[in-house]
Specification:
The chain has 145 residues and is mostly helical. The protein contains 7 helices and 2 strands. It has 2 domains: 41 residues, no CATH class; 97 residues, no CATH class. 26% of the residues are buried.
């Protein structure tokens, strides 16, 4: 419901009280660059290239991101970005995912995959994108900036 109100732009301002610092709503609000009244500022917008990767995940979420093509997309992009020096930080990735329009139930799946990868789990996955996917995403990010 809250997401629909924000997406429809039917309100100019909205106050949301989040009780738990680990609540996924907080990450969603941070991804939308909402102002945190405790600190008086908003998180920076997600990295443009990570945002483009997250858009790829959003395109796959209709079938779910915990199996099949969706999981392949998540795992491959996380591997490519990790190899390029990007952090496997779930909060950073989830902010980008929410900024791209990602769904809450799929965010939980991404977070799980990231935690597993940080622990060393090697996920079986097929190549979903070409070997130049990072370059392609960088180009897309440069075009949208």
């Amino acid at each position: 419901m809250l997401r629909e109100i924000v997406a429809s732009e039917s309100v100019a301002r909205l106050f949301v009280s989040v009780w738990s610092p680990g609540d996924v709503i907080r990450t969603w609000l941070d991804g939308l660059c909402a102002v945190n009244l405790n600190i008086g500022s908003a998180h920076e917008a997600p990295d443009a290239v990570q945002l483009e990767a997250a858009k790829c995940w959003v395109d796959e979420q209709y079938n779910g991101l915990s199996g099949g093509n969706g999981k392949d997309a998540v795992v491959q992009l996380l591997r490519v970005f990790s190899a390029a020096g990007y952090s496997l930080d779930a909060d950073i990735w989830l902010r980008a995912f929410f900024a791209a329009g990602g769904e809450f139930k799929e965010a939980v799946k991404i977070e799980k995959i990231i935690k597993e990868m940080k622990r060393g789990t090697r996920h079986r996955s097929k190549a979903r994108y070409g070997s130049n996917i990072l370059s392609v995403l960088r180009e897309r990010a440069a075009e949208t900036e």
